[in-house]
Amino acid sequence: MTVTGIEGLADLRPLLGEIGDAKRVRVASVPGSLAEQAFVRAWERLAQGEDVELVAISETAAAVARARLAGIDAEVLRSAGLSDHDALEVLRRAFDQLGGVVPDDLCGRLRTAIPLMRKATTAPGFAASLCRQPRSGATYPGLPRIIVEPPESHGDHCFTVAVYGVLISSLVGSDPATPFLLGLAHHLHNVELPDAGFAGEVLLGDHLPRMITVLEERELAALPTPLAQRLREVFALRADAVVPASQAFHAADVIDRVLQVHHHARAAAFTASQALDDLQLVHAGPVQSFHYDVLAAAGL
Questions:
Q1: For the stretch 50-85, what's the b/e string if a residue is b when 16 or more beta carbons lie within 10 angstroms of its beta carbon?
Q2: Fewest CB atoms within 10 Å of the CB: 29, 74, 121, 169?
Q3: Are the C-beta atoms of residues 12 and 3 closer than 8 Å to each other?
Q4: What separation, in Å, do the N-terminal and C-terminal C-alpha atoms of the chain show?
């Protein structure tokens, strides 16, 4: 099977787009985007010895629910007086709005694994660094870079690729843990290496592979030995897209990069009429007609 022949990928794509929007949603109580918060938490869980597949499935389940609930997570629900049972019911309702496009064998596992997540407190230092390290955006040798604001972080990108990898895994016959782990870690070298994009990689030339290895090993040294060794094994999958796990990862990576470009293109082309008409900014309710009168009087 080739990546271009993945049946069901087109059906999954709208969900991937909504999950990716967690890069751009924030809450007052915790710094960073929702994707960055989940990225840091995932690394904390892995560093503490949790099973990789359990982390992959539960974090992906939470990401699907978060696509509609945004910053309303289990912690918020419980602080507002909901019981654990009621909080889980809300999360599952949000999951069910989008989970229907996930392959059946994976969908059931995800729904069952929706967790009552907590905020991260003791994640490895490199996780926070990757959330501060911006991505370069689209670059090409010999051409000026295209600057887009605000840039996504490597934490945003890596967590999103990890979750996409889980959702795509069953389409290519991969286990979910391997593409999730590779997605989280595939830019570990960028903790210290600022991102200059493809143009910068070409200029680094033959030095780049060794630089990546040196910088990755520096960060792996801070992790428990079993996890570090597992990461060394999955890093080898970046070289091609032959085995199912590498297909799931590379499909997730390229989809996220292109969806990010589509986001910036949409943002640049956004119009007020889209908000007023398509999204019904002045929504139905007891004061809707008054709102319309106000806007008419103001010439809006």
A1: eebbebbbbbbbbbbbbbebebbbbbebeeeeeeee
A2: 121
A3: no
A4: 54
pLDDT digits (tens, 9 = 90+) for 136-188: 988 889 988 888 888 999 999 999 999 999 999 999 999 999 999 999 999 99
User: Which tens digit of pLDDT belongs to each residue from 244-292?
Assistant: 999 999 999 999 999 998 898 888 888 888 888 887 888 888 898 989 8
- Least Cα distance to 128 among 31, 193, 52 occurs for 31
**Among residues 253, 133, 124, which one has the least CA distance to residue 191?**
133
DSSP secondary structure code for residue 151 in this structure: P
Cα 190 from Cα 195, distance rounded (Å):
7
In sequence order, the β-bridge partners of residue 134 are 153
Q: What is the pTM of this model?
A: 0.90
Output the CA torsion sign for 226, 119, 39, 91.
Answer: positive
Cα separation of 47 and 37, whole Å?
Answer: 16
